[in-house]
Design brief:
The chain has helices at 2-33, 39-47, 54-65, 70-79, 87-111, 115-123, 128-139, 141-156, 160-166, 176-185, 189-220. By secondary structure, the chain is mainly α. It is globular. 31% of the residues are buried.
């Protein structure tokens, strides 16, 4: 049970982080440059998981992904399967719940770019992809690293949302945080201690890397 939960957690965190980068890069770029009047509302929607109880978000996602929900019915029509209590449902919930931890660092990094260098590259005839890879990404490297680390680690530590949407199915939706909860309920404190200590160490290493990146960036400046 423990190893399958760890494997599933790492798989979920990896898939979620990759999807958040695909969504987050264009959305963060738009938020960092737009003057659209709806920008504050979109920023609030992106950031709402920071203040919303996970069980509330999980409850509404469970309705949306269930057999009577819009996405659940669409999934039944195309795949003959509901999204609730599946790995796909966990991914959808994790993407929404971890979104601010990827969007906000990227948006901040894009807002601090040297626009004159980017404009000069376009004037000299550089293609957008080349500008992104050779100018934007190196300048925003700190934001990308922070977004990846926070998105991955936050997904690893999820509990309320994944429990509501995925339940507790070993090998399918049982992630590490839920496995710890089940071990404690079963009075298997030794195994719960091993998993919990692993998450404590993982969290410490994540924070150590982030603070190290920030300290190095300040020294370079």
């Amino acid at each position: 049970m423990i190893w399958s939960a760890i494997e599933l957690t790492l798989k979920l965190a990896t898939v979620t982080t990759l999807l958040l980068l695909l969504i987050g890069i264009p959305l963060s770029w738009w938020l960092s440059h737009t003057r659209n009047k709806f920008k504050p509302a979109i920023e609030a929607l992106v950031a709402i998981p920071l203040v919303l109880p996970p069980t509330v978000l999980g409850f509404y996602l469970l309705i949306l992904l269930g057999s009577n929900g819009m996405l659940g019915q669409a999934s039944i029509y195309f795949q003959d399967q509901v999204l609730a209590f599946t790995f796909t449902g966990l991914v959808i919930a994790s993407v929404l719940y971890s979104m601010p931890f990827v969007i906000q660092p990227l948006q901040t990094a894009f807002e601090q770019l040297d626009e004159k260098t980017i404009e000069a590259a376009y004037i000299l005839g550089a293609y957008p992809l080349r500008v992104f890879l050779t100018i934007i990404m190196p300048q925003a490297k700190r934001g990308f690293l922070t977004a990846i680390i926070l998105g991955f680690s936050h997904t690893v530590g999820e509990f309320g949302v994944v429990l509501m949407v995925g339940g507790n199915i070993p090998g399918e939706t049982q992630v590490v945080s839920i496995a710890i909860y089940e071990l404690v309920e079963s009075l298997e404190y030794q195994k719960a201690h091993y998993l919990s200590a692993g998450l404590v160490l993982f969290s410490f290493m994540v924070l150590l890397v982030i603070f190290g990146i920030n300290a190095r960036s300040r020294r370079i400046k």
